[in-house]
Amino acid sequence: MKKMYYKIYQFSPVWFQNIIISIYGYIIYKQRYGKVYHDTFSLLINKDYSDYDKELKNQLELLRAFLKHAVDKSPFYKALYKDIAISDVNSIEDLKQLPVVDKEMLRQNIEQVYTIPEKEGMVSFTGGTTGKSLKVIYTKDDFQRRMAYLDAFKHRLGIDTFKAKKATFSGRELTVNPKSKIFWRYNFIYKQRLYSTFDLTEANMSLYVSDLNKFKPDVMNGFVSALYELAGFIDRNKCELEFKPKAIFTTSETLLTVHRELIERVFGAKIYNQYASAEGAPFVTECKKGNLHYNIDTGVIETAGEDNDQMIITSFTTHGTPLIRYNIGDLITFKTGSCTCGSSHPLVEKIEGRKVDFLFSKTKGKISLSHLADVIKGNPNSVKKMQFVQDGIDDIKVNVVVDESLFTKEHEDVILKEMRYRFGEEAAIKVVKVDDIPREKSGKFSIIKNNIKS
Questions:
Q1: Are residue 195 and residue 218 in the same domain, yes or no?
Q2: What is the pLDDT of residues 354-401, one digit of tens each?
């Protein structure tokens, strides 16, 4: 929510907060659902994906056009490819002629990566599981194309985005009065009830269940951890549900089999998983047959590394901040075979890199990885790495590797403010600048170090 709206929001009663959210929702609605959205959506829902050779040809055409755009418009890529003939990229395999770009390269050169000024685009901040933050600028057309792709994915599953009532569990800061027992707000424009995951504690969950029974959502979506905890509460307490959603869509965290089984059983609806990213990665979406597909009309996913599972992505919907052979930090495993859903796009066995872990708060219970990743967003380019370490229930340390030329006391204060919102004012929280945060023995970077969970 924009700062000017949030200042008013903080001091407003709940009914007026709903109005503020709906006004802001209307602004977002106009940005997301314009002519490009409707044209793209119409094209996608009528598209035949069955001819793999045709899909590969289309992918290559989109790739070549995207590479030309990046070299013409982005000073970073123009310099990076100065000794490479982009015109020689005549196949997906030819992409290997280009160097791999990582998050640190983008962070250091982000102003040169952009192809448009911020005022002409739409901004997205990344947090994720790597501890590194970036400010990504989308072109308005690309943003609408991405929304159209997501909605076409849901349309194929029988969900009309504009008609369905949606219950959303994500990391938005909705509640500002700790005494209030209303942990949700309503966006009238989008028919969306927004549920606070910060207040989703054992003591409050019966209130969530009661409101869900009144609201009767057609669709539930949000963090895996939130939906899983709520399903667990309902299951343990044998709560009666008076609604049955048509579908459940999970985001931000890895969906494990144990999550899927419990959530689907409790709510009586199928989960449809999907992968994208705040940076704008190509889409991986689950079809009606339950298979994950790598959607090759949205970009290229290559694999690298010792286990050949590191994702190297090139995304066709990142014209404002081009991503070409970008090591996004997530892991993917493909599988052989074909699907009977009608799509010839390649099958994916699993995607990892967004593992769920928790820290703890005396007053708010479990604090999930997605909530902590959002803390990073306040410092778009000054923080290189961030790690959360908890040695005691009121002893939390935030290790940060910073760019000394950009990091300021104000940035530190923002981190502390965001952490206190999540853990409560009584928690002892320290921000500690360190030279580096080492990786685990597995080679992975752990953003959470919980030393009290056992």
A1: yes
A2: 545 678 888 888 887 667 767 866 665 788 878 999 988 888 999 998
Q: Tokens for 419? A: 């952490």
Helix pair 205-215, 224-237: axis angle to 10 deg: 100
Residues 188 and 329 in one domain: no
Confidence at residue 178, expressed as pLDDT on a 0 to 100 scale: 65
Q: What is the identity of the amino acid at 301?
A: I
Backbone phi, psi, residue 141, to 5°: -65, -45
pLDDT digits (tens, 9 = 90+) for 171-186: 777 887 767 899 999 9
Q: Does residue 325 share a domain with residue 426?
A: no
Domain boundary among 245, 260, 291: 245
26-69 per-position pLDDT tens digit: 998 999 999 999 999 999 999 999 999 999 999 999 999 999 99
Considering the domain architecture, whether residues 309 and 394 belong to the same structural domain is answered as no
Residue 302 to residue 310: CA distance in whole angstroms: 8
Per-residue HEC secondary structure of 175-197 comes to CCCCCCCCCEEEECCCCEEEEEC
With respect to residue 334, please indicate whether it lies within any of the assigned structural domains. yes
Q: What is the DSSP letter of 239?
A: P
pTM for this prediction: 0.80
pLDDT of amino acid 443: 43
**How many domains does the chain divide into?**
3
What value, to the nearest 5°, has the Cα angle with vertex 174 and ends 260 and 397?
A: 80
Range of the domain at 421: 358-450
Inside any domain, residue 262: no
The answer to whether residues 142 and 82 belong to one domain is: yes
Which residue, 352, 383, 417, sits at the end of a domain?
A: 352
Give CA–CA dist 362/427, Å, rounded.
8
Mean pLDDT of 296-325: 94
